[in-house]
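Hello K.,

You asked for the raw outputs rather than the summary table, so here they are, unedited. I folded two proteins back to back in the same session to keep the settings identical. This is the first:
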Amino acid sequence: MVTNLEKIILVFLGFFMFSCVEEAPRIVPDVYVNFSINIDLPLYSNLQADNNAIIVKNQGYNNSGVIIYRSFDNFFAFDATCPQHIDKPTAIVLDDKGASGTATCPVCKAVYTFSSGGQSSKGYPLKEYKVTKTGSFLYVSN
């Protein structure tokens, strides 16, 4: 027969076990990000088509840039710093001028897929930022 004390202990252990789920590690340090772009401008014309990406330079960690990716009517933003070797910050490079929805690190050759949340072919995913769309403007922040 299970006593009330044993029930309390079991409930406490169950709560403790399920509350200790690890979050994804934050490899790329937090920096202040807050900018907007007008996607109707020719400079950002790649964002008119699905599965395309552009890079906004001089933003994000170490000013490596922030990648903005379009998937249907949704926009996502990722720091362009490769998280696989943060000790020597390197900006990843868009594949196929942003038309393939992927980017590659020139140092470690990790390939990042934007449609899967910036997941890497090896190691850590890209740091993601918040994107809000109002009319033809995208606001990127953290």
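The second followed immediately with the same parameters:
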Amino acid sequence: MNAVLAEKNPYRWYIIAAVMLSTVMEILDTTIVTVSLPHMMGSLGADRDQISWVLTSYIVAAGMLMPLTGFLVNRLGSKRLLMINIVGFLFASALCGLSANLTQMVLFRLFQGFFGASLVPLSQFILRDTFPAEEQPQVMAIWGIGVMAAPILGPTLGGYITETLNWRWIFYINVPICIINFFLVLAFIKESPIRKLTVDWLGMGLLLLFVGALQLFLDRGEVDDWFSSSFICWLFAIFIISFILFIYHCIKNENSIINIRLFKDRNFAFGTLSMMFFAISFLSSIMILPQMLQTLFGYTSEIAGLSMAPRGIASGIMMAFMSRLVSKQVDPRILIISSLGLGAYTLWLISDLTLDMGIQYITWVGFIQGFAVGGFFMPLTSLVYSTLPRSSAAEAAGLFNFSRSIGNAIGISLLTTYLSRDTQKNWNILGGHIQQIHTNLQRWLDAQHLTLNNPHAIVNLANELSRESNFVAYLHTYRIAGLLLCISIAMIFFIKFSGNQKLEPVEAH
């Protein structure tokens, strides 16, 4: 694969490096901050609830701007937009590192989210716009490695930087990367055609309103106890009303800010839905795994993070292998369904864990999950764009990546809510079995060298009950995730493929 790309154009590796830096940098910043939040609390004078806005502000800002990628590319050009985003991301990152209080941090994270929103779909568009059809599978496989490996490796890198230096360096590290990225883009990436489009201000306002309300609703719902909070109720009402008005506006307006007519394309519509449900079930379940390893298995954040690394390695191997299969016109639907089935199987394996299983088993399951990710992502991205006109590639990339982003937000919100409530349910059920007449309780007390009247026995028993309740809830959560993944599998059966279908955007339907 390397030799083929190098023979075509000696500068193409610089193009790949430029867009890969943009992609990895943006995705890392959505996850790298997570493990540093406790360290930020003291420096910024924030409590546990307030510090969560450091994550919320970035997610909301990025979610609002990502669907506008196609419009911005047509209006500014892909190269100019990418350079603006890189420079903006550089200054926003530096200001985040210099923040003296929570207000400054949240404000600068908003700016960081605004400038980072288009980096991933924009990089995908540039690769598809630069490379010819025969090179698309190999190039997208390389790009996909960054997309899928970055969120997995984010917590590991964040924990290492925080412990080795301090939390401010998770932002400062973006500065040299942005500088290198800027000059690579300036030197090697070509500009796309610019079209003077009329700005659909009403559509833009409705889009920003409904996406912002949805992201806030998902991110703050569990914290504020969902619909028992008037704030959450208002957010949900604003989302529903603005979303309906936005769809109506786009249907009536031929020049709307988002071309929702792209969803008339069967492959794009069902492929995008499949990606969204994959993110809701599979990707979000991976995101909550480090928390389980730390709280229940007692691993450090560094070990928990390192256990995630094999997923990225296996994903890269599988994407390289899949690129060859797709090039040989193997039906990608078979590859996708097989990979999703493998993913569902790994979720079921995790749901059968026991607390005495070692990190080796969990790491091995993660390695298999990496094959599932690579086998799903690469063929799907090729298939989704195969029946779209090339002129729609930028808009399609924005919407497709938005489906992954919003799916991840929905999945984490759903799974964490279920996890919390199922833990309480399990507490009540398991607690009801703790009676003096039960021989298992007496065996446990004997092993602890305690009696039920001893205060230490009550404390130890409560801790054990909490641990077991939480562990059972995690197992149930992974089974729920496995069932949700079946919806993603179902979407693939609605996608069309013929043996002579080219797996890249064509000029016309």
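The domain at 262-433+442-509 is CATH 1.20.1250.20 (Growth Hormone; Chain: A;).

Happy to rerun anything if the numbers look odd on your end.

Regards,
P.
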